[in-house]
Design a protein that fits this description.
By secondary structure, this protein is mostly helical. It is built from 13 helices and no strands. One of its GO terms (molecular function) is metal ion binding.
């Protein structure tokens, strides 16, 4: 069976019950400053390593669960201290500099985390050092709860298994979003709770990641059966 569009892929993934033990948006603590930290730390590493770093940051009371204070803490932290706390995530010096600079720029340009969430756009984010398209869209969707579909290497590999080779990021993103938008009413009816388009995109991305984890990252020896 050939998947014709992202709606068919979405319904297939939903049937796999992949997010039964996950938060409602899949990513933890959606809408908080911690999402920004996680989105930077997860670059080129496994999420399990990021969780260790987040735990260290919480123990050091750099991340205290108060968005504005957390933002200020990161903007003012000593870079060497931050490096030591996030060492488990790899590339600690680079990520430390990126986090500190990003937080300083958020305060300089927006004044507060709340204002950042309300006003930031894709162009501003992509202009910040160390933020690529996947990180940008993760922040927009999971921190700002915007209607943005995050795509990644798993999204690309899964489509290869479906018979589509779409290498360009925006084209890949459009393929995933298009079927959702064209069948939004049908998707909403699949849930027994109110769900927004932004949350649907978040859960779609989460389903892809969790499905990849169960299937060896969609490596060459993986065969997709519908």
């Amino acid at each position: 069976m050939k998947i014709l569009n992202s709606f068919e892929l979405f319904t297939f993934l939903k049937s796999q019950n992949l997010l039964h033990s996950s938060p409602s948006w899949w990513w933890h603590k959606v809408g908080t400053f911690e999402v920004i930290v996680g989105a930077i730390l997860t670059q080129n590493t496994r999420w399990e390593n990021v969780e260790k770093s987040l735990q260290k940051l919480q123990e050091a009371q750099i991340l205290i669960g108060e968005n504005q204070q957390d933002l200020i803490n990161f903007a003012n932290i000593d870079s060497a201290l931050l490096e030591s706390l996030i060492a488990s995530s790899g590339f600690a010096r680079q990520k430390s500099k990126r986090l500190i600079t990003l937080c300083q720029e958020i305060l300089r340009n927006f004044g507060s985390f709340e204002s950042f969430v309300e006003s930031v756009d894709a162009e501003w984010l992509i202009a910040q050092k160390g933020i690529g398209r996947e990180t940008r869209d993760s922040i927009l969707n999971y921190a700002c709860q915007r209607e943005v579909m995050v795509v990644d290497q798993y999204s690309y590999r899964l489509l290869l298994k479906c018979g589509y080779e779409i290498e360009e990021y925006e084209a890949l993103q459009s393929w995933y979003a298009e079927g959702v938008l064209e069948n939004l009413d049908k998707i909403i009816r699949l849930y027994d709770f109110p769900i927004s388009l932004a949350q649907i995109y978040a859960r779609f991305h989460g389903k892809i990641v969790e499905f990849a984890k169960k299937n060896n990252g969609f490596k060459k020896d993986f065969e997709l059966e519908f």
